[in-house]
Amino acid sequence: MNMNHIELDRDRCEGHGTCEQVAPAVYKLDDEGELEILADPLPEKLTKAAEAGARVCPVAALRVVGDA
Ligand code: SF4
């Protein structure tokens, strides 16, 4: 089965949390403002949400990649 993954560029991420607002099942900011990826590898049913969250990141720090 093909699995998708989320790539996070921590150097870029500024902790805006926009991704978390759009896809709270996938992205979570911790108390220090570090982004946690809650679902990696990414189950099929969360892929759309993960992509939506990646799209709204203002600094383009997120990428959803497939291993197919
Ligand atoms: S939207 Fe982008 S900059 Fe903001 S927390 Fe998510 S990955 Fe980081």
Would you count the extended β strands for me? 4
CATH architecture: 2-Layer Sandwich
Low-confidence stretches: none
Strand order, biggest sheet?
Answer: 1-4
- What is the total number of structural domains? 1
Domain 4Fe-4S ferredoxin-type: 4-32
Keywords: 3Fe-4S, Electron transport, Iron, Iron-sulfur, Metal-binding, Transport
Cofactor: [3Fe-4S] cluster
Pfam families: Fer4_15
Description:
- With 68 residues, the chain is of the alpha+beta class.
- 26% of the residues lie in helices and 24% in strands.
- It has two helices and four strands.
- Strands 1-4 form a two-stranded antiparallel ribbon.
- β2 (27-29) and β3 form a beta hairpin.
- It is globular.
- The N and C termini lie close together (9 Å).
- The mean pLDDT is 94.
Give the arrangement of secondary structure elements.
Blueprint: E1 4-8, H1 18-22, E2 27-29, E3 35-37, H2 44-56, E4 62-66
Antiparallel strand pairs: 1-4, 2-3
The structure holds iron/sulfur cluster.
Name the descriptors.
68 residues, alpha+beta, Alpha-Beta Plaits, two-stranded antiparallel sheet, 2 helices, 26% helix, globular, iron-sulfur, 4Fe4S_Fe-S-bd, metal ion binding, metal-binding
Structure in a nutshell:
The protein is an alpha+beta fold and 68 residues long.
